[in-house]
Amino acid sequence: MSLWRPLLPLLPLLAWPATAASPALDLPAGRLGDVVRALGRATQTSISVEDPALWSRPVPALRGKMSARAALRRLAEAAGAEMRPAGPNGYRLLAKAPPRPRAVVAAAPHHIARAPVQPAPQDDIIITASKRDVRLSDLAGQVSLLDGADLSFGGPGGTDAILSRLSSVSSTHLGAGRNKLFIRGIADSSFTGPTQSTVGQYIGDLRLTYNAPDPDLRLYDVASVEVLEGPQGTLYGAGSLGGIIRLTPTAPALGQAGGSIAAGVATTAHGDPSGDLSAMLNLPVVRDRAALRIVGYGISEGGYIDNPLRDEKDINRTRTIGGRATLRLEAGDGWTIDLGGVGQRTRGDDSQYADRNATRLTRSSAIAQGFFASYAMGSVVVSKDWGGLRFRSSNGIASQHLRERYDAGVPAGYVLPGTGVDVLPFAAGAVLSKGEERVFIQQNQTRLLASESRLWRPLAGGFGWVIGTSLTSNRTEQQRAIGPDGSILPATGVVNRADEYTLYGEASVAPVRGLILTGGGRISHARLSGAAVDVPPIFALRATAEGDRHATTVLPSASAVATLLPRLSAFVRYQEGFRPGGLAVESNFVRRFDGDHVATLESGLRFGQPRRDRFDLTASVSHTRWDDIQADFIDATGLPSTANIGDGRIWTASFAAGWKPIEALRLDIGATFNDSSVREPVEPIMRTALARMSRVPNVARYAGRIGLDYVRPVDGDLTLRINGWARYVGKSRLGIGPMLGEAQGDYLDTALTMRLGRPRLGATLSVTNIADQVGNRFALGTPFAVGQGQITPLRPRTIRLGLDASF
């Protein structure tokens, strides 16, 4: 009963009387670009006109009540353009390709003609993460398309905004810029170490990270976020075992100037106040030929954890500053060049964990455990559109730095499980005695170079394909040090390098109407190397100091989609994924761990399209075989290390559904079930660890979410919007083995946001963690206190008041 109590304030909204959500438009005739800009403001819709030749074409006036889609369709017809969706609440206008002459070919005897496939309706949702611009209804697999405007609605949204809208995505919740993300049941470990992430994160076609934590970029001015569940090895290569998350920033708008600004202040129960400020500016550089779009933001989130040992309150304030800029150049003849840059810095005064058995939201630690995370990327993207054939080359270089401080003191009376000793060895000459104040510092510095070029033909006439090549070069250096604050000594670290060269392709064919068959493959050749750094002399002769090897991997894929009814389809999909191996530190020695591999067979049903139909549903069941799992454990010195822990299998069942009982209201619900096991450990230490706990860590067996979105015109273009959700995360375990067997999860998170305003000016009021629950999102704050009752609570109830304006 207590789980449903926080939802009671949302129930009266279901009975609110509503009128049609379509606004009353009164837009005069004029140039397409001017009318589209006014329409976007009036309907809060993202619309881009990508062909400069369309910008000045005349269009008639728009008057009367109509949806943004209906109005834009009229404009497109008048201007001789094609309308294509770009996310749940966005559209693109493209010049219509000239009709091609139809060739007359005599059919050979006994030749079976392939049934024609109808072209995509203009209001179909297009999944760009497919790398072939596939319609949602034609895609095999579970995919979620999130509107960028929703992710920043009511406050500064980051990865937490994605988590709140999906039941299948989870996080370690160490803190902004420090987290590891998981999709479905594919979770490897609790710490950020030398292993590559199981989730591929991308901005456009460029990889954000390789084996670094989630940079948690704030999702201001983002057009959409696509989440593809399950392995995506054929199209995305290494590090996509669980799926991929793809961000699509809003592109610069040619020929128009405009901008927006948003600000908010918030108060947190049991904590300090917060504030945020963001701005966007779109500037034409050369009329209809070049435009610059700039986004900047700053966020200060008040702390809410107290430290009675040091007599300090609200110690965990976090500050984030960042921005993004894109210069778009129309080079003519269909060529487009985008020059982009992304940067963000996050600084935390202290960690956000608390003691489980202490007073609410308190932690007694001897030292401050702050962190610093930075991320920067520069990119060049070149595109060409021939109409039925498209090309894109994406090239970027990224740098990521994470510095963390941990309380490394061992309380008197504490015995490290499995050791039975009173002192623990670390660096040369350094001994950690019980009761001493020590600090452990870990730094991860990553440099990533990524380049991908692909040529594709969207599915039309019963045939579509993509072929591409990519190069990824990544170098990560992990440095560690320990000792009394101010006089620390270096501990063994490691450098890992990976160079990956790939060739991939995928093709779809429709042999008969209503059936699409897809097959593909990827060949990846990786060169892996690494070396130990700062090896203490006492261990230097015994340490494995370096390693170098090559690996070639072939990843096949196959799928089928069958249309059973006009809006109902069934799919089956087989896909593989992998991660290369590397070097890890264990008890001052450097050891090698091997690559791991997953193979997933999935089947499911899809009915309707989200936000397009009154009812939509996607459901799937998958089975995954995971060989040579890379995961973390606690070594004899109390620090995390990495090894291959054995083989596993995972069953996953999930569904997501939406329903519009009335035009103004949409309800959605989703749930995920994961059942996993790990078996056949390779090493004796792993057999002991698995004896007590053999489930894949960090992923709840059950997770679910419900939400509502209500939009009601009040007077003219004055609109009230209410969005609310509740998300339950079930029980899980911190990691593999008795030392990482701490329970976590089993909590309910809630939020409610209201906006009253016009397209150009509005005010928002939002409440998060409505029930002010403590919960436990992650049972770890410092690895030196594993087993001592650590929890990462939810942020206490927070109320934010915000203003937004556009011009």
Please provide a written account of the structure.
The chain has 807 residues and is mainly beta. The chain has two domains: 1-98, Phage tail protein beta-alpha-beta fold, CATH 3.55.50; 199-806, Maltoporin, Chain A, CATH 2.40.170.20. It is built from seven helices and 46 strands. It has a 22-stranded antiparallel beta barrel. The chain has a five-stranded mixed sheet with strand order 10-15-16-13-14. It has a three-stranded mixed sheet with strand order 3-7-6. A hairpin with a 4-residue loop joins strand 23 (371-385) and strand 24 (390-407). The longest helix has 12 residues, at 32-43. The protein is globular, with a radius of gyration of 27 Å.
SSE map:
Blueprint: E1 24-27, E2 30-31, H1 32-43, E3 46-49, E4 58-59, E5 62-65, H2 68-79, E6 81-85, E7 90-95, E8 126-127, E9 134-135, E10 143-147, H3 148-151, H4 159-163, E11 169-171, E12 181-183, E13 199-203, E14 206-207, E15 222-229, H5 233-236, E16 243-249, E17 258-268, E18 274-286, E19 290-301, E20 318-332, E21 335-348, E22 354-355, E23 371-385, E24 390-407, E25 423-425, E26 431-433, E27 439-460, E28 463-483, E29 489-512, E30 515-533, H6 537-540, E31 546-565, E32 568-579, E33 582-586, E34 589-593, E35 596-607, E36 615-627, E37 630-634, E38 640-644, E39 647-662, E40 665-679, H7 684-690, E41 702-715, E42 718-733, E43 743-758, E44 761-768, E45 790-791, E46 798-806
Parallel strand pairs: 3-7, 13-16
Antiparallel strand pairs: 1-5, 2-4, 6-7, 8-9, 10-15, 11-12, 13-14, 15-16, 17-18, 17-46, 18-19, 19-20, 20-21, 21-23, 22-45, 23-24, 24-27, 25-26, 27-28, 28-29, 29-30, 30-31, 31-32, 32-35, 33-34, 35-36, 36-39, 37-38, 39-40, 40-41, 41-42, 42-43, 43-44, 44-46
Helix pairs in contact: 1-2
